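User: What would this chain look like folded?
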Amino acid sequence: MARIVGSVDDLVAEIPDGSVLALPPDYSGCAMAAVAALIARGPRGLHLVGVPSLGLQGDMLIAAGAVAIVEAAAVGLGERGGAPAFEAAIREGRIAMRDATCPAIHAGLQAAERGVDSMPVAGIVGSDLVRHRAGDWVVVPDPFTGHETVHVRAIRPDVALFHAPVADRSGNVWIGVRRELMTMAHASRKTLVTVERIVDHDLLAEDTTAAGTIPSLYVEAVAVARFGARPLGLRGEYEADEAAITAYLAQSRMSHASRAA
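Assistant: Here's the prediction, encoded as structure tokens.
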């Protein structure tokens, strides 16, 4: 059974320096309150895995100097534009980038989820990505057809961190339609979750919630963080605070522009 911990600070204390940390994209359940608490602690040497991409939380961790490696299909803030700290860190050579694709990230996590060392992925044979990821991705013939297929090494994060609407007192966590969060929890050695609230009833016992619930077997610890995804939104709970995100982007872009000058 997952532990219900007293605070977000207690939760992020379980993320050591150098961790391989899986994070969801901005449109999923981002544990922004937990990321802020983690930054305040001053972590170093994190390897971020975007599932399958990274946005605001990844950019903030990079700006704080907490990140050594980024592995993702993309890093950006969607229609809001690029991720300033990420772009500056790449230009200045302060972080290593392991480029991927959405299917490749999911395949690597699914391999870990299923307890195998690799997973085949179609569609990227012959791309420069395969050359850049030599050692992690290997082109081999399919045993049935002989056609070349890329095998992606399993991705086994040390920690998955995300935010969800609700958990019960046993630590079962309801994520609804956000299935990438389920994959992250299955693939990771430890899953840490912030939630809007804790309920007394068993989420796995109800037909309306069971299918979208991660069993506590896959969850290490849960902490309550009301509005824990803000300034990003949380499906079914609240919308993003666009003014706060715009303010972050303006400040970050100005800071990196002055450094470049």
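The CA atoms of residues 91 and 123 lie 29 Å apart. If you want, I can go into more detail on any region.
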